[in-house]
Amino acid sequence: MAQITLDKLAHSYLAKPQNDADFALKQIDYVWEDGGAYALLGPSGCGKTTLLNIISGLLVPSKGHIRFDANDVTELSPENRNIAQVFQFPVIYDTMTVEENLAFPLVNRGVKRSEVNQRVNDMLVTLDLKDKAKRKARGLTADEKQKISLGRGLVRYDVNAILFDEPLTVIDPHMKWQLRTKLKQLHEQFGHTMIYVTHDQTEALTFADKVVVMYEGEVVQIGTPEELFDEPAHTFVGYFIGSPGMNILPGAVEQNTLRLADQSFELNKHYRSLSGKLEIGIRPEFVKVTDAAGAGSSGVKMQVNSVENIGRHKIVRGMVNGQAIDAVVDEDANVPADAFAVFDKSRFNVYEDSHLVRAES
Amino acid sequence: MIDKPVNHKAWFFVFPVFLLVAISAIIPLMTVVNYSVQDTFGNNQFFWAGTEWYEEILTSSRFHDALVRNLIFSGIILLIEIPLGIAIALSMPRKGIWVPVCLILMALPLLIPWNVVGTIWQVFGRADIGLLGRSLAAIGVEYNYATNWLDAWITIIIMDVWHWTSLVVLLCYSGLVAIPEPYYQAARIDGASKWKVFRYIQLPKMQRVLLIAVLLRFMDSFMIYTEPFVLTGGGPGNSTTFLSIDLVKMAIGQFDLGPAAAMSIIYFLIILLVSWVFYTAMTNFGIDAPEKEVN
Amino acid sequence: MLELEHVSKQVGANTHINDVSLQLHAGTVNVLLGPTLSGKTSLMRLMAGLDKPTAGEVIANGERVTGVSVRKRDVAMVYQQFINYPAMTVYENIASPLRLQGASSATIDTEVRKAAELLKLSEFLDRTPLNLSGGQQQRTALARALVKGAELVLLDEPLANLDYKLREELRVELPKLFAETGAVFVYATTEPHEALLLGGHTATLHQGRVTQFGSTIDVYNRPVDLQTAQTFSDPPMNTICVKHAGGKLDAAGSDMGAPIDSQALGEGEFTLAFRPHHISLSQTEQYRIPVNGTISTSEITGSETYIHINVGQSHWVALTHGVHKVHSGDAITLYLDPARYYLFAGKDGALAQTPVKTAKAA
Question: Which of A23, A353, B228, C330 is deepest in the core (most CB within 10 A)?
Answer without folding.
Answer: B228
